[in-house]
Structures are given as C-alpha cells and as structure tokens.
Specification:
The complex is a heterodimer of chains A (114) and B (880).
Chain A (H helix, E strand, L loop, with lengths): L1 H20 L4 E2 H12 L10 H10 L3 E7 L5 E7 L1 H26 L6
Antiparallel strand pairs in A: 1-3, 2-3
Chain B lengths: L1 H12 L3 H22 L4 H12 L2 H41 L1 H30 L10 E7 L1 H10 L3 E15 L4 E9 L3 H5 L5 E2 L14 E4 L1 H8 L9 E4 L2 E8 L13 E4 L7 H6 L3 E7 L5 H11 L23 E2 H6 L2 H33 L1 H9 L4 H37 L14 H32 L7 H41 L10 E6 L9 H17 L3 E7 L11 E5 L12 E2 L1 E5 L3 H5 L3 E4 L13 E5 H7 L9 E4 L6 E7 L14 E5 L11 E7 L6 H12 L5 E6 H8 L1 H35 L1 H9 L4 H30 L15 H27 L3 H6 L2
Parallel strand pairs in B: 3-8, 5-7, 15-20, 17-19
Antiparallel strand pairs in B: 1-9, 1-10, 2-3, 2-6, 2-9, 4-7, 5-8, 6-7, 11-21, 11-22, 12-21, 13-14, 13-18, 16-19, 17-20, 18-19
Helix pairs in contact in B: 2-3, 2-4, 4-14, 5-12, 5-14, 5-15, 12-15, 12-16, 12-22, 13-15, 14-15, 16-22, 16-24, 16-25, 17-20, 22-25, 24-25
The chains are: A alpha+beta (114), B alpha+beta (880).
Amino acid sequence: MERDSNDLLQGTLAILILKTLLPGPAHGYAIARWVEDTTGDVLRIEEGSLYPALRRLEDRGWVTSDWGVSENNRRARFYTLTAAGRKHLRNEATVWLKYSQAVTRVLRAAPAIA
Amino acid sequence: MSEARWTRYLRFIRRDVAADVDEELEFHIAMREQRNLALGMSPGSARADAVERFGDVDGVRKRLVNHDARRQTSRDRREYIADCLQDVRFGWRSLRRAPAFATAAILTLALGIGANAAIFSAVEAIVLRPLPYSRPDELVSVGTGSSGEFVALRERVRSFESMAAFVTQTHPFDDGDEAVRLEGAAITTNLLATLGVKPLLGRAFTEEEGVLGNNTTLLLSYGLWQRRFGGSHDVIGRRILLEGVPHTIVGVMPPSFQFPDKEAQYWQPYAFNPANVGFTWAVGDKRIIARIAGGVTLAQADRELRAVWPTLRKLNPLWEPGPDYRLDASVRPLQDSVVGSARTLLWILFGCVLLVLLIGCVNVANLLLARATARERELAVRAALGGGRGRLIRQLVTESLLLSGIGSVLGVALAYVALRWFVTLMPAGVPRTHEITLNGTVLGFTAAVAIVAGILFGIIPALRATTVARSAVGTAGRRATAGVAHHRIAGMLVAAEVALAVLLSVASVLLVRSFSALRNVEPGFEATTVIAARVSPPGERYRDPARITSFYSGLLDKVRATPGVRSAAAVDKLPMAQSIWGAAVRVEGQFEDGKHPLPDIGHFQAVTPGYFETMGIRLLRGRAFSDADRGDQPPVAVISQSVARHFWPNDDAVGKRIGYAWDSPWMTVIGVVADTKQDSLRDTLSTSMYVPWQQRSRMSGNEMWLVARAAGEPTSLAGVLRRLVQEADRSVPISDVRTMEMVLADSVQKARFTTLLVSAFACAALILGAVGIYGVMSYLVAQRAQEMGIRMALGASVRDVMGLVVSRGARLAATGAAVGVVAAFIATRALSSLLYGVGARDPLTFVAVPLLFLIVAVAASSAPAWRATRVDPVRALRAD
C-alpha cells in the first residue's frame, strides 16, 4: 500500500507542489507540512524528494525562488508560482479531475466491488 | 523585468552555492524538529525523527549542490552576455549621438589599424610564415662556395641528411615563336628532394642528369607553363631551345615553388665537370643548402661546418687560400637567408606603423577624455543610480572597443585595397611577396590589435571619467571640478603623442637625407643620355667565336650609324644591373712566395672598344682598348685606379703584368681608368679589371649589354635598338632596354621604398600630432573661457592671453619632443644598416625635427589662442 501511494506521488508531486503554492509563496518545509496536513498522511512523501522536484519546477519556469525571512525570523528560501506554473497547474488539474472522475464512475458502476 | 531584479539582487548576495543548499535543508530539518518538540518529543528523538522524515539528506544535498552550481554558471554567463549586449547597444546609441566624434575616432583608428594589418600581412608572409617546403625548420643555408668545395663538404659533413646547391642563371629561350631571355637556376639533381618538393606535372631530375652532357632537361615554372604553353599537359617531353641547345621538358613545378626567388622561370640540372679545374674551384658562386639530419641541432651542424670547411684549404688545386679561409663559415636557417635584409626593412616598417597607431590611439584617448568631461553629468547620474564603478568602466571601455572594432573592420577593408598597391611598390629584392595575403593570422592579429588599442585608449579616459563621476555626484557636474586633473592627463597624452611623432620623423628625416646622399653619389660614369640593352645570343648558335664577334661588330656598327647616337659599345655585365663577380688575381713580382693569399679584384668586365668613352669613365693613364686588341693578340687589361694604387703605389701601373688566379697567360696593363660603382651606389671600395671583349674567357657566355650614348633624349633609341637586334638575328633576345638613369634609379629602389613609406608614416604622425595639440588646446581654451574672460576684463592684452595659450602648447610639445629625441637616439640605431652618408645620430636631424614640432605646436595652438582672445568677458562670467 505505501509503495503504491509513493509511486502515485512521484507522478503527481509536481501538481501537489504547484497547488500548494497557489495561495502564495512558501518555503520547502511549509509545502511539506501542507501536503501532509491536507492529505491526512495518506500521501506520505519523503520530505527530501521535495527539493529536487522544486528544482525541476524551477528549471521549467513554473516556480521561482527567492531568499526571504520565515515566520520565525529565519532566512528561508521561498518558492513562488509563476504565471506559466499557474497555467500548467490548471491544465494538469483539469486532466486529473476528468481522469479520476471517469475512474470513480467506473468503480462505482454496478456490480459493486465487495 | 523580474529576471533583471532577480539577477541584480543575486549579484549582491552571490554566495557559495553549497552554503545556500545547506541553509535551506537545515531550515527544513530545524523547523520539523521544533514542531516535534512542540508535540512533546524528547530533544534527541525530535531531531532523529526530523532527519528520518527527510530521508537521504546527503544524497539530496549532493543533487541540489550539483544542480545549483550548474544553474549558477549558466546564469552568470547569460547575465554577462546580456550585460555586454546592453553595453554595446548603449555604446552604439551614444556614438550615434556624437557622429562627428565617432567619425573622427573611427577614421583615425581605421587608418592606423589598416596600415598595421597591411604591413603585418607582409611581415607574416615573408618573415614569420615557414617556407613552403616540407619540415622547413630542418632546412639551412650553408653559404656560398665553388662546386669543388660543395662536393668536398658533401663528402665530409655528417650533420646533414642531404646537401644541395644551386646557381641562378639566365639564358635565351626559344620555343620557336619568340626568343626571350629567362631567369632560372641550375640546381643539383637532389635539390627538390632536399627541399621536399615534387613537380606538379612530370618528374624531378634524376641523378644521371647531373653529369655534363646529360643535363639537357628542364623543369618549367608554373607561370612560364601557363604563359608560354597555355597550361597544356602534353608539354612534358617537348623540346625547346635553351642557349640554342634542345632541352627536354620533364616537369612543371607548382605555383608555390618560387626558388630561389620569384624571377626563376625554369630549372636545369647542375652538371659537375671535375675535368674543368678552373671552373670547379675558381667560381665560388654556388649557393649551398642542406637538410639537417634527424636529432642534430642547428648549433651542432654549425660547429661541424666551422670545423670542417677551413680544412678544405689544402684541396684547392689553383691557389693557396689564406689562413682565414672560411673561418666565418656558418649554418643559418634557410628562412633567414631567403628573407635576408628584407627582415630589418619589414620590422622597421612594422615599428613605424605601430607608432602611427599608438599616436592615433592617443588622439582618440584625448577625444574620449574631452567627451567624458562633456558627459560628466550623465556619468554622475549613472554612478548615483548605483551603477558600480567597475560597471561604468566596463561600459566606457565597451564603447571604445566598439570604436576600435568598427575601425578595424574598415581598416581591414582599407588594407585589402592598399595591399595590392603595396606589393607592387615593394623593391624587387624582397622575397615571397606573392605569398602576402590577408589570411587568418593577419585577421587574428588585427583583432588583437583592435582589442589592445580599444583598451589602451579607452581605459585612461574611463578611469578618469568614473573618478570624476563619483566625486561629482554631489556637485552634479560643475565643470570647474574636473578641469585641472583632466588637463594634466590630456597634456601628458599630447606630450606622448609628440614624442612618438618626433621619433618617427627623426627616422624619416634620416632616411630622406641618406636617400638624397645616395642619389648624389658620383657613380664614376656619366649616366645621363646613356641607354643600355641586354642582348643574349644563344650559346649553341654562336659557339664559334668568330660568329659572335661578327654579330656584335655588325650590330655595333649599325647602332653607331644610327642618327642621334654619339657612341656605342658593349660590356658583358652592366654596372648596377646585376652582380659583377671578380676573383683572386696574380700580380707579376708580387705575392709569388705562396705564403700570402692572392689579392682579390672585385669586378671583372669584358668590354668592346669605346666602352669607357660611351659610359663617360675617365681614362687616367695609358690607353683604352682598340679594335687591334683581338683574341689572337697579346692579352691586355685596363685596371681601375684603386687597383693600380693598391698593387703599384709608387710606380706606373701601365706596362705591368697581371693574371687570373687560375692557369692563364699574363695580361699587360695598358691603361688605368677611374673607379666606378659597380654593384650599388653604396659600394665603398670598387676595384675593377677590364679586358678586351675578344680576349675574355669563355666562361662569360655570349651575353653582352649594348650601351649607347645619345646626342639627346636616350629613350627614343629603345625602339631602334630592339629593331636592330631583331634584324640581325631573330633568335637573339633583347631585354632590359633601359636608360642608365633608370638603372640607377632601380638600384636604389629599396631605399626609395623605405624612405617613401617611413616618410608617409611620419607625415601621418605629424598631422595626427598637430591635430592632437590643436584639439587639446581648443578644449583647454573652451574650458578656461571664464578665466580668459576675466583676464581680458582685468586688462590683459590680446598678446598676453595668446601667449598664455601658445606657451602652454609649446611647453607640451617641448616636453614631448625632448622625450622623443631621447627615444630616437636609442631607436635609430636599428636604422643604421639602411643609412648612407648620414649618421644614425645626425646632429642636424636631431635639432631640426624637434624644432619643426615646436613650430607645429605653436601653429596648432595659435588658432585656439586667438579664439581665447575673442571671449566676451560678460558672457564668460555668466556661463556657468
């Protein structure tokens, strides 16, 4: 079960991060916490993998990073969603939602699975 | 826009990439640890849990550091390029806003850089580029000697892989259509292999062809092949007449093969003839080259040759050479001997153009300085807005690099055009001129010059401007603040410019003076109204001495009978037109003990009766030759004054006997004539011996020069001479029909070329120097208009104000001139080999040139000075 959800996460980590940044800039720890809180520990990510993923997003121009000051007055690196990132998120989310709705419909259709 | 802010931000905090990654990861773990503590974990397990949740800390860290470092590098590069482009765009705009300045600067630089590119392309092709042979660094010149010496050396010297020899020659050449005289060379059969060159078509010579009688084969030059045979491939095997003897063409050489120089049109195998002892040992005109064996250094080869050659002293069957025989033997790189004296000439010219460019740079630097002061406000604002000083300097230097870049593109175009003209102007003796091109090396050099020049003239104004800009931030660019320091630098630049121009002008004046001294040399003959023509009857056809005698006698009779001809004669070798060899002689009653080396006479000539009269050579004692001095009469000779004085200082030379060093009958001296310059006007001692043409040795060949003295303008006789020779025998080529005035002028072609170029550069330097002084004084006057106005208002006279400005200009020039004179004093020593009749430290030149510059300085500053007196005091006071 855990291994499966991790595979799932690898594919969707980008979307999760982008979604996390939608309300505003955040540092890496905040992103990790938000994912953890929102998914209720179902999607347990290895926090370390977050950072290479962020670099990849940066390289593709979906987020930018900048040093700033954290809520407890420490120097922290903040990631900000770019316009391109917002657009990408919107596209990916639409695809994802359609896909999951379709899968859900199939799974809910009779006969019920146990 | 966000990108720009981001990069600027990054510049200030540019930190170690690894430290940033560590800080980011440490922040994450610390935050998690804090939360764990808040949730009630023990301090130890709080940290451990944070690390565990994070996963592979070291692995992630390594990935991030790698990634960020790469990104940082590419970002730096992009940023740098973007900055450069921005600088270039900005520079371009600011140059377009000042078109007069930009045009002046670019033209100055284009001329300077173009001249450098042109001269450097000659230096590169002639001096620097290796010879077009295989492994050219192994090829050496061994010196000049007789074929006897050559063979002996080849048997003895171990340092060489192979040794070859050649001698230039000229022959009548007849392909059936037209008889012409061609220059060529007789080469030992191994010469091409020694150089590592193969014919383009056909084959090289075989060893058997080096035997007398077998040497009737020919290699054609590419040029001759194209010109006379239309580049046809069936030329191989064709027979043509050389000296009237049929020769078989065995090959065609590639166009790059111009050996030993560009005049050579054909090559013939050099045939050794040991039976002819006199020829083998007495004619030391074979030039010997060699390829050094693998693993042997030039120094080793040189040592061996120096040890071996003097030991050949005993081998000479003809005479006993003196104890200092061949002690001066040496092995030199072949390139050195090919380039010869052209090296000095080219480096001197190169030095001169570099000086001109330097002066141009100083002028542009001055323009930039003046401009920087005018742009003070702009720069102050830019400095105030946070453009760092480095950034500002970079901006300004980019602007000057832009100037020099545009200048060099124009300059290369100029050089391309000038080069054709320059190559045709080169004196005949300069080798390898056909190799001169604007190639990659030259373009690379030009680019380097442009960059160095751009930085050179850009950096001082940029440093200066940015200092002012910083200090002027507060005062927002009041002109007075910048003045003093600026004037000092501008003054120094002008003084430097004058120094460089004085240096060049001194060189130029020395060359001009020595050129005029050379032209005033008395050659010992009367060149005016004499015309000469080279007549080359083919040897085979005129093998019979009676036939050649009747040919020339008949020809001379017809020439003498031509209206407008005062007298005519013939000589086997014309003074100033070709080298006239001499050799050791025996003198009856002297040097006969065998202990002393035989003395040399510099030049042997065979002449017809009437030669001395036609050439205007004074007969000092005895008689000249007459028609009675035929081949069957007792041998006689006429000697020049120096020879007479040397051998018989207290006695009358007439009636004494003299002879060639080799076995030959005595000749009785019948007359003494004045010394004449034979090889060049620079000859210091010119000893000559003349023999009657019918008594000359057979070695001399059939060729003679007709000389005719005209009653009036001699050029009108050229056509007549051509026609008469053609009528006498169409197989006899006539060439080099020139007046003696032209022959003399050609003999100083190199001096004229050098003088012309250096003088042109000196003129450029003088003009640039004058412009520089004018510019700086104008600027100074404009800057100090206020002061001038006040002075005038306080009662200073026009004379006072003019004096103030002019004396400042003169002081600058005097300082520069003093420095220039000292520099010239040292530098002109390099010229000494080119000078004639004037010392490298000629006092007149060293006084006159600085004086000239003082006058120029006064003239150049008097216009601004006059403007200074026109300043309206009231306006001047209100101005700032």
